[in-house]
Amino acid sequence: MKKSSISGFERRNTKNFYAFISPWLIGFLVLTVYPMFESFRLSLTDTGFTGTGGYIGFANFLTAFTADTRYWISFRNTLVYVLMFVPLNLILSFFLGWLLSRKVRCLGFFRSVFYIPYLTAGVAVTIMWGWLFNGSYGLINYVLSMFGISGPNWLGDKNTALMCIVLMNLWSIGNNILIMLSGIQDIPQSYYESAEIDGASTFRQIFTITIPLSTPTIFFNLVIGIINAFQLFNQPYILTDGGPVDSTRTMSMLVFQNAFEYGKMGYASAVAWTLFVAIMAITLIVQSTSRKWVFYGD
Amino acid sequence: MWKKITALMLTLILVASLCSVASAETTPLSGKLTIWAWGADAEAEQRKAIIETFIAAHPELEVEYSIIPTADSVWDQKASAALSSGSAPDVIQMSPDYFGMNTKYYMDLNPLVERDGVKLDEVLLPGMIDGYYDADGKLEGFPLHSNCFYMAINKDMFDNAGVAYPEAGWTMNDLLDWGTKFVGGEGANQTFAIAKHWVMNNIMLYAGGGVPYSPDLQTCYMNSADITKSLELYQKLITGGLMPNDTESKAIPSAVLFESGLCAMYPCGGFEAESFLNDCAENGINVAFVPMPSGVSDGKEINVQYATGWAITQTAKNVDAAWEFLKESAYANEDMCKATATCGIPASKAVAENYYAKIEYPGFGTTFNDYMVAHLGAAHLNPFGGTLASTGDIWATMVQAVTMDGQTPEDTMTKYAQQCMDEFASYGFNTSIKAN
């Protein structure tokens, strides 16, 4: 009697589980899984703007890897951006998160100040940054001129344009700071107290306690940061349109332009899939190394 | 008896032939007609006015229309989804330099033109219909209106610099000569000879005297000496400070630069004339108009036209009504053509010459529109629109290479010209590609 009531309870639980998860599951299947399959199917065709195309096998992928010079330029630019932005993002967000975890005056004010840029990021802010970086009458060059330094044409120079975009995005890392802050605040105070008793300096405490015990948070920010950085689109599209001389053309831009400006839906899908594979590969590599440097609890 | 039978037969034959003539002349329209147009603001108002005029003229038809914005790829997505799913409207907006040309989704209008005996060169303004023929001679669309450019100058800047107003035949070489007198100031007060309007990339393409490809789209000339010359001229204009570079022009819109009195010349499009002249008047800018520049080697005036038209889709359910709409909006309905004139040169030759050309702008009389009508025929269709956009992006990179990266025109041609040739060869409508 008791056994059947438990299994009935479990059955009801299982039904409830699927009932509650079904809206998300249906949405995931219809809006994520199905489009992914359709996109892969498209990548094997020469579908154009009007949606018809014949099967051409992996010709689009071959074109991307061997014939489209812009593909490798875009991939290189995206990779360079990821290698510049992600480490700086982690270091800066950790440092600011640590500062915000200290007991200082007006802490609430500082937390708001660092978070607000994340809320305001968008097209208008990007355009504002374009004005700041303007080579002729931007504020940055004006301030530099006060020190006798002649600033470059930041967004008009292929050597500095991508760096400007890195700086723009570092300005709005408020969300990462908040995540780091919550991870740092989760560290039990007892560790710091013991370290203080043992005579460890603040600097030493950071490297022996804070960083090791924050590695789960750092790992999370690293993975999300890599995924987001690979999909960079807004700033180069709005400010530089991939220029100057293709120096800020990213993979996402290449996908967008091929799909919606050149009408090469099939080819754009192929490029999108190569981007997906690249992100997946790097994420798996980071995941596999995490066992060595990420510490969960004990 | 035989005489009566013969007379009766002749009468019947006569009546039958009269009926067939009547039906060819006036096929009554009926049923439903669906129309999709693109546009926002003034263009949307224009489309609405045109379609409502057609509806008023045809109460026997049930017309359903939508005006869809082009911003944020909204039009692209809706049109491509509808065309590929077979649910496209009977009449769809299109442009010879935008998506749609050289696809299989538009009906060939040649049989309809021949059926109705339409004499295109008599009813349409010269230059209006040419771009709507594809390389195989298929007439993919019918024109609604078009716009080209007229060069505005700041008279006060010219007078103060002691530079004579340019006359027909002036080239970019001439601008390099006297344009330096307009260069001055720094920072927000920097002055230029000519604004970097978004059309300048297209104008400079022809500045060397060449063309990017042949009219039949079968021969690409992007590796020619004329294109090298164009790059050289462009480089000198920007590095010499006569024209803002890409980054500078993004910070201050080119029209604002001219309207603020910071640049001496501005290529004004027909679509922006009214607002441009109003803003100049408000800011006290003394404007005059001079002819567009000419190519260095061929001496031909350079102008670019941006055309808008209509097409009948292959899935159209009411071809007769659709064709009637196309004809009336192009030339057959004077009220519709006059409504078109708010946003560009109407396709109708009669309305363009007798109505549009007579529209006056305060202080300029009919000068502006007269020029538009007279020069449209020789204007190049937007060379790198829609289907050809990928080659246009390579050209934009070439321009940046010489104007922002300090590369020589020769090195730039070596690096990028073949990419243009390869990209051009990849287009589905090219049956054979020959290098110049």
The number of helical segments of chain B is 18
In CATH, what is the class of the largest domain in chain B?
Answer: Alpha Beta
Largest sheet of chain B: 7 strands, mixed
Radius of gyration of chain B, in angstroms, nearest whole number: 25 Å
CATH homologous superfamily annotation of the largest domain in chain B? Periplasmic binding protein-like II
Query: Architecture of the largest domain in chain B, CATH level 2?
Result: 3-Layer(aba) Sandwich
Largest interface, with counts of residues having CB < 8 Å to the other chain, equals: A-B, 34 and 38 residues
Tell me what the CATH architecture of chain A is: Orthogonal Bundle
CATH topology of the largest domain in chain B: D-Maltodextrin-Binding Protein, domain 2
Quote the average pLDDT of chain A: 91
From the spread of the alpha carbons, the general shape of chain A counts as globular
What does this 3D model show about the protein?
The complex is a heterodimer of chains A (298) and B (436). Chain A has 298 residues and is mainly alpha-helical. Chain A contains 13 helices and no strands. The radius of gyration of chain A is 24 Å and the shape is globular. The two termini of chain A are 43 Å apart. Chain B is α/β, with parallel strands linked by helices. Chain B has two domains: 29-147 and 305-380, Periplasmic binding protein-like II (D-Maltodextrin-Binding Protein, domain 2, 3-Layer(aba) Sandwich), CATH 3.40.190; 149-302 and 406-435, D-Maltodextrin-Binding Protein, domain 2 (3-Layer(aba) Sandwich), CATH 3.40.190.10. Chain B has helices spanning 2-25, 42-57, 74-85, 110-116, 120-123, 155-161, 172-178, 200-207, 225-239, 246-251, 254-259, 273-282, 319-332, 334-340, 349-354, 367-375, 389-403, 409-425; strands spanning 32-38, 62-68, 91-94, 99-102, 142-147, 149-154, 192-194, 219-220, 263-269, 287-290, 304-312, 345-346, 380-381, 434-435. In chain B, α8 (200-207) crosses α9. The termini of chain B are far apart. The chains are: A mainly alpha (298), B alpha/beta (436). The A-B interface holds A 48-52, 67, 69, 130-131, 134-138, 153, 155-158, 239-246, 257-258, 260-264 and B 73, 76-77, 80-81, 83-85, 99-100, 103-105, 186-188, 190, 245-248, 250-251, 386-387, 389-390, 393, 396-397, 400-401, 404-405, 407, 419, 422, 428.
